[in-house]
Design brief:
alpha/beta; D-Maltodextrin-Binding Protein, domain 2; six-stranded mixed sheet; 12 helices; about 20% strand; Tripartite tricarboxylate transporter substrate binding protein; BUG; Bug_dom1
């Protein structure tokens, strides 16, 4: 896939084993990551990790800058825990860089410290594959997938493409001449998946990588790109205002409250979702893992979290235990295949 980078966007490798599984090589990866970001932000989580009572203190690590999807999850979780007295002192630490793998490396180095949670998801899994990072999801304790977000395929309101078939037909005629954009690595994976479904070689596609959903929308509106794949929450305002036309929702089935036909219903079986997850350092006891599982269950059952799910149009999908392990293995295989098709 031909990629023109406007600015590299922050954000996932191998699937994690069961929660009780011990992992190796985390110290090396963590040390590299610490050197890359400096001692200040890492110190803020190591100092908080001094105590092991998860109800006394907790650090939630968002592996990207403030304002993005991972940061939103971290801060909504923080609010839910604070408002309901689930934790006495909970802080959010932002650690941007390399699609989230900098933060992953740091958290993987905190072996045995239960009062740290790392927000992750599809983008983090993709980044570990894309960058071949030393630290992978095998180096942390994966606790839960919380929900999914869906991408929507959009074009400018004045675009000649009225349907997804219109867009794909023009794309097939000259793949390099129809530039796509998106706000991150996940969006590019969706475009790649659609190309494969349409019989287009992803290597022949022009993809303009934008730094977040807002920049991708501007690339559409100023004519730099002809089409985009981006998160529905990022695009809903522009769709409702009439500035963008939504052609397809990338979901397994129609979603209540979203009046956009799925790509699958239009003959293109692309269903990659942008799921969000929580992990903790490795080396935890069974009792500590059980305590974190209980804390997560309590947090996502609060009114504040339920309000966030509705406000951000998240689709709840809670996976834990063996079901989570199987899901991560399948996602790793799927995303690795897409990167191979992209020639990366």
């Amino acid at each position: 896939m031909t990629e023109t980078s406007v600015d590299a966007a922050d954000g996932a490798p191998q699937h994690t084993g069961s929660k009780a599984r011990k992992t190796v090589a985390r110290v090396i990866g963590g040390a590299v990551a610490v050197a890359a970001i400096g001692a200040a932000s890492f110190g803020s989580i190591t100092s908080a990790a001094a105590g092991q009572d998860i109800h006394a203190s907790m650090t939630i690590v968002a592996p990207a800058a403030a304002g993005g999807g991972w940061d939103t999850v971290a801060r909504e979780l923080q609010q839910a825990q604070k408002a309901n007295g689930l934790i006495n002192n909970v802080q959010v630490v932002n650690m941007p860089g390399a699609g989230g793998t900098i933060a992953l490396g740091n958290v993987s180095a905190l072996d045995g410290t239960a009062n740290n949670l790392l927000v992750g998801g599809t983008g983090l899994l993709a980044a570990t594959i894309q960058y071949g990072s030393a630290a992978t999801l095998d180096d942390v304790t994966n606790l839960a997938v919380l929900f999914e977000e869906y991408d929507v395929i959009v074009v400018p309101a004045d675009s000649p493409y009225e349907t997804l078939d219109d867009l794909v037909t023009a794309w097939k005629e000259d793949p390099k001449a129809l530039p796509w954009t998106g706000g991150g690595s996940f969006d590019q994976l969706v475009v790649t998946d659609l190309a494969l479904e349409a019989g287009i070689d992803p290597v022949d596609t022009t993809y303009i990588s934008s730094d977040g959903g807002g920049e991708a929308i501007q690339a559409l509106l100023n004519g730099t790109a002809a089409a985009a794949s981006g998160g529905y929450p990022d695009n809903i305002d522009q769709i409702e205002s009439g500035r963008l036309r939504a052609l397809a929702l990338v979901a397994e089935e129609p979603v209540d409250g979203i009046d956009i036909p799925t790509a699958r219903d239009q003959g293109y079986d692309i269903t990659l979702s942008n799921w969000r997850s929580l992990s903790a350092p490795a080396g935890l006891t069974d009792a500590e893992i059980d305590g974190l599982d209980e804390l997560i269950a309590e947090s996502i059952d609060t009114p504040e979290w339920r309000d966030a799910v509705e406000r951000y149009h998240w689709t709840e999908k809670v996976l834990t235990g063996d079901e989570l392990d199987a899901f991560l293995a399948e996602e790793h295989e799927r995303i690795a295949r897409l990167y191979e098709e992209m020639g990366q």
